[in-house]
Amino acid sequence: MLNASHSASAFGAGGNSSNLSTVPDPGEALLSREPRFLQPLWELRLGYEEYLQSPLFPVVLSVFHYFGLCIPVTFVDVFCKRHKWYNKYKIQPDKEITAAQLRDTLTLTMWNHVLFIMPAAMAQWVWTPSSPLPEMAPTLADFLWHQIAGLFIFDFQYFVWHMMHHKVRFLYRHIHAVHHRYNSPFVWVTQYLHPWELVVAGFLTTTNTWFFDSHPLTVWSYMVVSITISVEAHVGFDFPFSMHRLDPTGNFGGSPKHDMHHQKPLTNFEPFFNHFDKMFGSFCPPMGPGGTKSKALTDYERRARECKKNF
Ligand SMILES: [Zn+2]
Ligand SMILES: [Zn+2]
Predict the structure, then answer these.
(1) Which residues form the Fatty acid hydroxylase domain (predicted)?
(2) Which of 11, 181, 265, 297 has the fewest CB atoms found within 10 Å of its own CB?
């Protein structure tokens, strides 16, 4: 899928100009008196501004965060697969991750980084000037709502893009099919993408915070959160602490829902949430840990079989 995240920031850095506290107008003076709970965190930038304001920083942050998440999970897949708990929480415990699969996914990930992410980052480094960082941190309210709104916007954009790339045979066969080579996802499948999908996901992720003229701290955090959700969607596990279990509304998709998309590719197109899939009838109840099936899923499969018979 998406991956929103996916390598997002090779297409733009964060930051805006309106947050720069160089213009002493009355409105800004009022703003600066708003409590800034994130100011202590923002102060940590001091001494590193030269690096942080570089257009390369969001790219470096995204790439390191992606590899930083994937590498430990790979160790789990390689060294823990004989443990009881591993199969208890694995969504498709009968599908073993092989060395050949790891080699294949890592190879494409590397090529995508070398041929697309790095050149885009270099171009940005050469042509985009560094923008000075603001003195003030964003307000907590702006920090949170910009990111939540960014996630919902990306979720809608990618839902439409994703559905089109499944429904239009040409688009599926030539672009999105790459991501569906594996019907049992594992972390490195997150960015196992055709370059065009990588470019689109990166562009959408990057530009969404431009709608809000977001503070650089918000932009960086949004990228980290997007990448984290995308990687978690592909881990292939449903742990008691998995993200979807922490959402009291039940609208967050998480790893079981996206795992089901890899099993039944004409369902669950939405990358982060459930509301559009439920609204447009593409929602399929996910499989639980250890390959368990809920009543909702067995009912869904029975209805699908009946539909096929009657067709
Ligand atoms: Zn996927
Ligand atoms: Zn898909």
Answers:
(1) 149-282
(2) 181
C-alpha of residue 14 to centroid of ligand 2, in Å: 28
Tokens describing residue 306: 């009946």
Ligand located closest to 2 CA:
1
For residue range 191-215, list pLDDT tens digits in order.
999 999 998 998 888 888 888 989 9
Ligand nearest to the CA of 189: 1
Q: What is the pLDDT of residue 25?
A: 57
Map out the domains of the chain as residue ranges: 8-17+38-310
Cβ-contact 189, 66 below 8 angstroms: no
B/e letters for 207-221, b = 16+ CB within 10 Å, e = fewer, are bbbeebebbbbbbbb
Confidence of residue 94 (pLDDT cuts 50, 70, 90): very high
Residue 189's nearest CA partner among 247, 255, 240 is: 255
Q: Note the pLDDT of residue 60.
A: 92
Say if CB 283 and CB 277 are below 8 A apart. yes
Q: Residue 309's Cα: distance from chain center in Å?
A: 37
Q: How far is the CA of 27 from the centre of ligand 1 (A)?
A: 45
Residue range 277-297, pLDDT digits in tens: 999 999 999 999 999 999 999
DSSP character string of 117-183: IHHHHHHHHHHSPP-PPPSSPPPHHHHHHHHHHHHHHHHHHHHHHHHHHHHSHHHHHHTGGGGGG-S
Q: Kindly state the average pLDDT of the residues 18-35.
A: 55
In this structure, what token pair is assigned to residue 99? 């060395």
